[in-house]
């Protein structure tokens, strides 16, 4: 998320903090949002949170794939550590989100919530 004083980004950070506080630690929610915010730029774009807000899902613009990573009040796990996992590539972020079960996510990032709303209207 871009660093700005724009009310939209304040709202996004607030929504992330509220959701994390509901699922994990109200005390650490702000610190966790700060780390997610710092990781959400350049190569990686935050898509949402799953697994009781234990896992953050990022879009990797370089490899065109979804990256799952843990996070806590101390930081976000290394997003560049690809390990030996099988990499499922997509044509783009929209295709990856269309393939995802967004209803099961704890939070869909507000910049992607339009897709969830469209599915509800079509469904």
Automatic annotation (TrEMBL):
Entry protein name: Uncharacterized protein
């Amino acid at each position: 998320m871009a660093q700005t004083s724009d009310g939209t980004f304040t709202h996004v950070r607030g929504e992330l903090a509220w959701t994390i506080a509901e699922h994990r630690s109200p005390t650490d929610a702000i610190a966790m949002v700060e780390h997610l915010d710092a990781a959400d730029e350049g190569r990686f774009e935050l898509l949402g949170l799953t697994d009781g807000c234990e896992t953050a899902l990022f879009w990797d613009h370089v490899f065109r794939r979804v990256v799952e990573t843990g996070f806590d009040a101390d930081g976000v796990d290394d997003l560049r550590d690809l390990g030996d996992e099988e990499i499922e590539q997509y044509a783009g972020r929209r295709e990856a989100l269309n393939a995802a079960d967004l209803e099961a996510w704890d939070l869909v990032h507000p910049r992607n919530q339009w897709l969830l709303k469209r599915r509800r209207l079509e469904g």
